[in-house]
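Researcher: Let's do a round of design. I'm pasting the structure tokens now; please hold your answer until I've finished.
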């Protein structure tokens, strides 16, 4: 029977949509299971075949859990704010909302074609005001919260104000920008403006001067992961370090909890390691060094206070505020020049560059508080303002980077940890030796010396033991248009949040999407974007009088804001009263399975965990962590094609002749190749782009053969394969099976369209199991034990594979089972019905169709997954190879239940054994039950 995949797939996709097959109910006594894909950004290019890999895996699992009787939440939505739509708006004047809507329409069309079992009724978009109303609400909650170290959680700012009113800062243990000290009386006497200024020091959403990655060409601040090699990832524009007043999120308050929470999660170890490194917990001491001739001190954090006697110079971050105060006039020019040069590097670049040593001398000296020796103070880009205190005490004898710096600038290297190695040539960084040249620490090991020196530091009143974290507070401002407006207005220079009743604060219309002539963000172009405090509404900006009408915040939220809580909104997507009803978040709880790329390790995944913990602290949800199990899928790689242009000409030489010429390899669109070969369609190539119209070709055997190389699939490499084309030719079920068949989910693997013919052949074989010629033919006859064995072998394998996410080996097992059933011409209902259910999570369209042909009116989706019966896998007979002196002479089929003695008795009376023995007695009979028989003669 002809397998018409196009007709079948259209039919069932329409059925699922019309019948809302995958719409999830909240009113159920079923156990829940929440399967989620990482939020997709709807780009203008649409999907290529690499994108659905994780979605197919999560869809298989979601369908499997439905078959197991779970109430499955498997939603979809779009992280629809983003820089690409804004850049397009700047170039064309098209509103980002229009571009985004078009992109989403395209994405949805493609996703539906692949047959995903999403609950489309729960779709959310971060750029929809009904969604970002609640992103703004969470921001307001963060603004009105502080972190109480005593209770180890976020609390309402009201409890902090109460503490100030009763005790001032006495007994206060809070996460803060600066350590403040005042009495209750002093608090009560200060003005309202000063009180607001003090509270900003503690709020979880706060404004502060921060060093940021500023990209003038894009007119915005970029996150570290949006910058590569000192340039913006999008557009390749120069990025500079710049100090700006920015909104920040106090994620640093949660560093320890984020670290400890990793122990409870079933995540890949490399991902956990990335977060641990990013959080960067270290224990040591904070120490103050006096600056000679100035009323200043340099505060350092060090994990090796035991080496303080070996500190021979100090290094400050170029952006440390102290630099300006202590740089001498003679050194000012050199220092200023160095600071300018450093501003062109991102922090990530500075951390990664471990080989190059550079710096500038400030002209000033610190005094070592224990040795009393003068220590020259330098600046260098290897010290970061955001980690520790923005200053290090350099111990070149026992730190590799300090050692390189000392050698470059000819500074003293002093051994304070015992070693036979020459510390003038290389640093000795071990903690396994004892202190030397260190006065009262001499002879002590690392742990003893650390305890003693911290006690002495505290006795001298110059510091204390402490725990430090590398993780910085997260910058929350972007100077761009296409993002969530920050629900804040400014009164007397202080930020105040809008009332919740005024949410959502919607993006205003603007004439252009670039910063204003005054350098304000694009929202500064809006004509209606001011807050009328008296009438509680947004009004025209020309009404601002700073009495009753005030300016609104002009920055927007970063790209990660909306994606930090979307998993909660899916639980209650249309609620206008709350972001998510408590009973629903209690029911759905954590995401049970989260699938997405590893590139989100230190961005989205950390921010989501932070916001989740905050919402738990404030009593809005119960779960500590958002994502219990996480899998990072690998990439599907493209097979790029190259032509070879002879330098200085418009001649192109075929691959195997290129070695005889000086050539440049140029990417060419894989669609210009003939069929599935490597041969270039030269006429199509000429028409591809104007500059190739006059191309000349040097051929081999009358053909132009392209070079091929496996690379990341991307539009810029012209190696993208469109899933629509694959669905058209091989069907969505073919695409789904092939993507799983390519290899283990977590690994990257190359795409090869030719490989689809194998899975398509399997689908045709599976289809024809249910037909006799063109007639649907399924028998009610009881299957044989052999037929049951094929089915239950498959059930056992598929259950194991799905539960261990080994989807590729399941597809192999499907092929083996269908081949075996085809060989024995099985058409029994009791085999083919459960077979359809087993295969349906992978290939839902074809299985729905055969299920319907089997006489069922309802979808196969909620049928109980077949239960394994191990009895069918027990062998009745074992075919024993019978060997004589290790050489097999014949095989003998015996019941599987026989003991070794029973096997020996039956073998010895067999006529073939008697014939081989020829009257001789065996020396020994070796029996391995269910394996072999060996007779030694």
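Researcher: That's everything. Go ahead.
Model: Designed sequence:
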């Amino acid at each position: 029977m002809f397998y018409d995949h196009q007709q079948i797939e259209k039919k069932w996709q329409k059925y699922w949509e019309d019948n809302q097959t995958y719409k999830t109910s909240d009113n159920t006594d079923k156990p829940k299971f929440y399967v989620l894909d990482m939020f997709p950004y709807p780009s203008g290019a649409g999907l290529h075949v690499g994108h659905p890999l994780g979605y197919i895996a999560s869809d298989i699992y979601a369908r499997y859990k439905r078959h197991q009787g779970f109430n499955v939440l498997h939603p979809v939505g779009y992280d629809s704010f983003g820089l690409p739509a804004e850049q397009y708006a700047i170039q064309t004047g098209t509103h980002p909302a229009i571009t985004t809507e078009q992109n989403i329409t395209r994405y949805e069309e493609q996703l539906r074609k692949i047959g995903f079992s999403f609950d489309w009724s729960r779709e959310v978009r971060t750029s929809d005001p009904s969604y970002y109303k609640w992103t703004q609400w969470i921001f307001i909650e963060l603004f009105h919260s502080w972190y109480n170290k005593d209770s180890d959680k976020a609390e309402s700012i009201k409890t902090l104000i109460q503490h100030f009113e009763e005790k001032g800062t006495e007994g206060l243990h809070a996460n803060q920008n600066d350590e403040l000290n005042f009495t209750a009386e002093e608090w009560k006497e200060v003005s309202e403006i000063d009180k607001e200024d003090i509270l900003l020091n503690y709020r979880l959403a706060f404004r502060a001067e921060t060093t940021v990655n500023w990209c003038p060409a894009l007119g915005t601040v970029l996150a570290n992961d949006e910058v590569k090699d000192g340039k913006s990832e999008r557009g390749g524009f120069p990025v500079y370090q710049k100090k700006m007043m920015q909104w920040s999120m106090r994620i640093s308050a949660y560093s320890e909890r984020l670290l400890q929470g990793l122990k409870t999660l079933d995540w890949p170890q490399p991902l956990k390691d990335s977060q641990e490194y990013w959080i960067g917990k270290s224990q040591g001491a904070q120490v103050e060094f006096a600056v000679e001739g100035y009323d200043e001190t340099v505060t350092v954090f060090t994990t090796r206070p035991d080496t303080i006697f070996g500190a021979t110079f100090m290094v400050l971050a170029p952006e440390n505020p102290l630099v300006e105060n202590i740089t001498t006039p003679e050194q000012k020019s050199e220092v200023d020049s160095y600071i300018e040069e450093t501003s062109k590097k991102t922090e990530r670049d500075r951390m990664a560059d471990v080989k190059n040593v550079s710096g500038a001398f400030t002209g000033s000296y610190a005094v070592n508080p224990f040795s009393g020796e003068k220590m020259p103070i330098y600046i260098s880009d290897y010290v970061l303002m955001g980690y520790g205190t923005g200053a290090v005490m350099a111990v070149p004898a026992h730190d590799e980077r300090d050692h390189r710096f000392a050698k470059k600038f000819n500074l003293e290297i002093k051994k304070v940890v015992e070693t036979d190695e020459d510390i003038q040539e290389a640093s000795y960084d071990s903690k396994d030796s004892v202190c030397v040249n260190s006065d009262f620490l001499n002879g002590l090991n690392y742990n003893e010396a650390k305890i003693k020196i911290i006690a002495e530091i505290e006795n001298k009143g110059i510091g204390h033991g402490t725990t430090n974290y590398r993780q910085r507070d997260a910058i929350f401002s972007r100077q761009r248009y296409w993002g969530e407006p920050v629900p804040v207005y400014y009164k007397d220079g202080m930020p105040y949040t809008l009332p919740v009743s005024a949410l959502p604060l919607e993006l205003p219309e603007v004439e252009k999407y670039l910063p204003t002539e005054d350098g304000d963000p694009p929202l500064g172009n809006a004509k209606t974007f001011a807050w009328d405090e008296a009438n509680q509404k947004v009004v025209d900006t020309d009404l601002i009088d700073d009495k009753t009408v005030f300016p609104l915040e002009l920055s927007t939220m970063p790209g990660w804001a909306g994606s930090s809580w979307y998993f909660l909104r899916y639980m209650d997507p249309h609620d206008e009263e709350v972001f998510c009803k408590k009973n629903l978040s209690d029911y759905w709880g954590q995401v049970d399975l989260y699938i997405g790329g590893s590139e989100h390790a230190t961005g989205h995944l950390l921010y989501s965990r932070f916001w989740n913990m905050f919402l738990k602290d404030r009593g809005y949800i119960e779960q500590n962590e958002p994502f219990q199990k996480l899998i990072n899928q690998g990439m599907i790689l493209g097979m790029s094609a190259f032509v070879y242009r002879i330098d200085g000409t418009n001649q192109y030489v075929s691959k195997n002749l290129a070695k005889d010429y000086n050539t440049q390899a140029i990417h060419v669109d894989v669609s210009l190749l003939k069929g599935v070969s490597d041969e270039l369609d030269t006429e199509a190539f000429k028409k591809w782009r104007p500059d190739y119209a006059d191309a000349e070709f040097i051929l081999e055997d009358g053909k132009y053969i392209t070079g091929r190389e496996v690379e990341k699939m991307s539009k810029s490499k012209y190696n993208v394969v469109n899933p629509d084309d694959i669905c058209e030719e091989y069907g969505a079920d073919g695409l789904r099976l092939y993507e799983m068949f390519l290899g283990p989910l977590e690994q990257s693997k190359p795409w090869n369209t030719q490989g689809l013919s194998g899975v398509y052949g399997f689908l045709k074989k599976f289809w024809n199991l249910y037909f006799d010629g063109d007639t649907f033919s399924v028998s009610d006859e009881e299957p044989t034990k052999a037929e049951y064995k094929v089915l239950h072998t498959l059930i056992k394998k598929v259950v194991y594979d799905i539960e261990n996410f080994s989807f590729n080996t399941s597809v192999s097992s499907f092929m083996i089972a269908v081949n075996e059933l085809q060989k024995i011409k099985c058409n029994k209902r009791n085999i083919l019905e459960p077979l359809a259910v087993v295969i349906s999570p992978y290939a839902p369209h074809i299985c729905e169709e055969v299920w319907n042909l089997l006489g069922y009116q309802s979808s196969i989706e909620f049928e109980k997954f077949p239960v394994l019966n191990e009895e069918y896998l027990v062998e009745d007979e074992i075919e024993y190879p019978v060997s004589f002196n290790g050489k097999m002479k014949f095989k003998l089929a015996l019941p599987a239940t026989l003991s070794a003695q029973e096997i020996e008795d039956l073998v010895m009376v067999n006529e073939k054994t008697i014939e081989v023995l020829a009257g001789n007695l065996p020396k020994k009979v070796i029996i391995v039950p269910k394996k072999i028989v060996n007779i030694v003669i």
